[in-house]
Write a structure and sequence with these properties.
Membrane topology (chain A): Multi-pass membrane protein
Helix content of chain A: over 70%
Radius of gyration of chain B: 23 Å
Pfam families (chain A): ThrE_2 (PF12821)
Number of strands of chain A: 0
Keywords (chain A): Cell inner membrane, Cell membrane, Membrane, Transmembrane, Transmembrane helix
Strand content of chain B: 5-15%
Number of helices of chain A: 7
Structural class of chain A: mainly alpha
Organism (chain A): Sellimonas caecigallum
Subcellular location (chain A): Cell membrane
Number of strands of chain B: 3
Oligomer: heterodimer
Strand order of the largest sheet of chain B: 1-2-3
Chain lengths: 159, 260
């Protein structure tokens, strides 16, 4: 229990700092951190429950997408502000290192195992972001829609 | 809006687009914002083409001579505060709260958020420490990461100041992480887990921004920008790995006496 708590705090600090690195506006730093912390929490719960890393990544990124889109709608700001921080805990830094480590040890089998895993993780992140974007596009409202460019053009053609 | 200054409108849209692209906004967001700004002229034709390295836009109407502009964008970094401010300005302009002149002036005054200097310098250290905790780091690992992180922060600051190209800087940063981690391993011995420290410390360097933008651009149907960003993400990841590899293979034997 304490472990979960400490790790969530850790991710919060990490994502908060990362948000500073990419020059997020000061008032959104906390929210970016929360987005990352929730994503990290889900990732940890999934991996602790013996779920495969790739699937854990998928759920974690999906949660990050959900949280980011909700925050973006509440705070009326671009969704990337929170999404970048949200998916950061799942970005395969571990995979990148393990690939190199095993190449140096001349262990080709493990290197290609981690290469495949890293690519799968990247795919899982992409899929999760895509699903959440699509999901929220169905429920868009207001006059400033994310997809409004194509929306306006469709209207033009009808005239 | 008759009698509008179309040249100024075009300049405004171009400025907004250029700033957003330089700050690392997704391509479709740039197109969308420019489209909204240009649409306030009510002209029949407003076309915008944005790719990662440049913008071109043109407007024309029945009684207005076509105006076209192209803008090459060379420098790209990530600055969400600039994107947020431009988003805010263009929303207010399109809602009619701002006049065109005011919007142009505001866009010219857009400045990046400034943190206290030590905060922006030490931010990578925070990322490294947080992720070391997340990746099962012990107290000793965290202690080592603090030192590695501060070293990395210094190198990143110096690299930015020297104007080294981004990808070379990635290798340099990764090499410095590797070397610093090896030195800490030499000092601390068996209590420190080299893998955890290195994995935590390279997290500030991983291409999180590039991956997010690549996915969002690609699924928006913008394959050119999506591919470009995907390539950026892969190259960054590969170069970080390369840097770690250089550090471990060249200096590993030398610093730790062949533990790695």
């Amino acid at each position: 229990m304490t472990e979960v708590f400490i790790k969530t705090i850790g991710v919060f600090v990490a994502v908060y700092s990362y948000a500073i690195m990419i020059n997020s506006p000061t008032k959104y730093l906390i929210w970016a951190g929360v987005s990352g912390a929730v994503s990290g929490f889900v990732y940890f719960i999934c991996t602790a429950g013996q779920i495969d890393v790739v699937i854990a990544t998928f759920w974690s990124a999906l949660t990050a997408g959900l949280i980011s889109h909700i925050f973006a709608r509440i705070l009326k700001t671009p969704v990337t502000m929170f999404l970048i921080g949200g998916i950061l805990p799942t970005v395969p830094g571990n995979g990148i290192y393990q690939i190199m480590h095993h190449i140096l040890e001349n262990d080709r089998a493990m290197a290609s195992y981690y290469l495949a895993q890293t690519l799968e993780i990247a795919g899982a992140i992409a899929l999760a972001i895509f699903l959440m974007d699509t999901f929220f596009r169905i429920f868009r409202r207001g006059d400033w829609k994310q997809d409004s460019l194509r929306y306006i053009r469709k209207g033009e053609r009808k005239k | 809006m008759r009698g509008m200054d179309y040249k100024l409108l075009m300049d405004t849209a171009m400025l907004a687009g250029k700033l957003m692209l330089q700050s690392g906004a997704e391509t479709y967001r740039v197109e969308d914002t420019m489209h909204h700004i240009l649409k306030t002229s009510n002209l029949e034709k407003t076309e915008i083409l944005v790719i990662m390295t440049g913008i071109s836009a043109s407007i024309s109407g029945e009684d207005v001579a076509p105006i076209s502009m192209a803008q090459r964008v060379d420098t790209r970094s990530t600055n969400l505060s600039v994107i947020e401010q431009i988003n805010h300005i263009s929303r207010r302009y399109c809602a009619g709260e701002l006049s065109l002149d005011e919007a142009y002036c505001l866009l010219n005054d857009v400045k990046s958020v400034t943190y206290p200097r030590w905060v922006s310098i030490l931010a990578p250290t925070g990322v490294a420490i947080g992720f070391t905790v997340f990746f099962d780091g012990t107290y000793y690992d965290v202690l080592a990461t603090i030192i590695v992180g501060i070293f990395l922060s210094g190198i990143m600051l110096a690299g930015k100041g020297a104007g080294i190209p981004d990808l070379i800087l990635d290798i340099l940063n990764a090499v410095s992480v590797g070397i610093a981690a090896l030195v800490m391993k030499r000092i601390m011995g068996d209590v420190m887990n080299l893998d955890t420290v290195i994995i935590g410390s390279i997290m500030p360097l991983v291409p999180g921004v590039a991956i997010t933008n690549a996915v969002r651009d690609t699924f928006q149907g913008d394959y050119i920008s999506g591919c470009a960003r995907l390539l950026e993400a892969f190259l960054k990841a590969a170069f970080v790995a390369l840097g770690i590899g250089i550090a471990l293979s060249v200096f590993g034997e030398f610093i730790t006496g062949g533990i790695v």
